[in-house]
Specification:
This protein is α/β, with parallel strands linked by helices. The protein folds into two domains: 266 residues, 3-Layer(aba) Sandwich (Rossmann fold); 162 residues, Rossmann fold (3-Layer(aba) Sandwich). The protein is built from 16 helices and 13 strands. The strands form two sheets. It has a seven-stranded parallel beta sheet, sandwiched between helices. A six-stranded parallel beta sheet has the order 10-9-8-11-12-13, with helices on both faces. Helix 4 runs parallel beside helix 7. The protein starts with a strand and ends in a 5-residue tail after the last helix. Pfam families: EryCIII-like_C. This is UDP-glucuronosyl/UDP-glucosyltransferase. Keywords: Signal, Transferase.
Amino acid sequence: MPRILIVSPPFHSHATPLSVLAAALAAHGAEVFFACAPAFRPLADRAGVGFVPLTVTRNSNTGVAERTDQAAREAARLAEFLRATRRGPVDTLLTQARHRRADMLADPEGVYEDLRSVDRRLRPDWYVVDQLAYAATLALHCLGVPYASYCPGHPGYVLSGPGSFFGLPHDWPEAVRPAPSPLATLRAAVRDNDRAFTGLFAAFARDRAPSAPAPGRAFALTSPHAVLYAYPDLPWLPGRPEGPVHLFAGHMAGPDEPPAPDWTRRLRELRERAERLVLVAFGTFLSARDDVLRRVVSGLLDGTDDTAVVVAAGARAGALADLAGDRAVVVPTVSQRQLLPHVDAMVHHGGGNSFTECLRAGVPALVLPMSSDQFSIARDAERAGVGVVRDPNALRPPDVPEALAAATADTVRGRAARMARDLRRYGPAWAAEHLVGAMEARLPLPR
């Protein structure tokens, strides 16, 4: 079986599912190494695979972004990003476009040298690299080593043609669809980024690997062999590039685990006080939007008498502590995967992990997208009929009960249950088997 090195950016929402894939590949018989920033070594230990310290970006997030030690410049960018989310989708995506150079291609020379050293030492048969770890993908391309790409969020991250651009959602939910003028501004910005990054990639490749094929459009650089998506293969997704095998695993959640005894007790107490239990979580970055968390939780508690809430508030748990009570638990973080089988609905930000974990558990959702690929994911939830979407900046507490009622209507719950049944045969084990098969069919004998 192959020796595989998995390369992850130092973000909890990326590294955790990639460590699940690492464990599945190891269970399938591969010799696996997990490469990420040193703080993420425990993920490799839990997966039972080797660990390689490798940092592919200066930015990081070990679980709660605001509590992660960041350099001053990265912390300032995070604060600017959070302010932009309060102004709406286009401002947020424009801010992210401005930050891209520092976040995604901060030290291509260092990443290249580190990966070259690792390759000489471990001699992997092939790699798995996160699609958003662009410096690592560029390095692997220049080194001429075989790799598969892992798409961590919406499949639109893998660009399908000249009209698709990184940072421009392929579709928008009705609640946050921008007007034509600001959308044109965004399109121009992402097109400029595309040209700038493509020039940087080309110059780097000429210096490091002048005999290698040109990398082409920077954000379209992906494996020529296989692309693995932690996402269901929905019929309306954008087209996929020709060449690689495209594998849709549905989700990348680990095996079912019961809640810890303390959580079992808490959930039982909440169920004794309310007919309906809702999980509210905005991920590791957007838990900082405590204004939206407060409006959602207040709306559920004040606007209903049959609903209890568990809210993951990140670093803002203290600021929201006054909401805790008989029908509300406020904590910094939760294990979504452990709690989802025990709740009736979830309010989330449209993150890829939250969306697919809800699908796996058959839990309908109220989706409040704020950045990145969340607008495309929210649109998919809307089109699939497994959730409803609202504008997080326009939502007020009196609006929340109606939004939750729409999200938990019988038709929505029925579709969510059917999708959960359809996804049962997919997941990490399916991904490991099919990824190894696809790569073995595409590659020459091991080096």
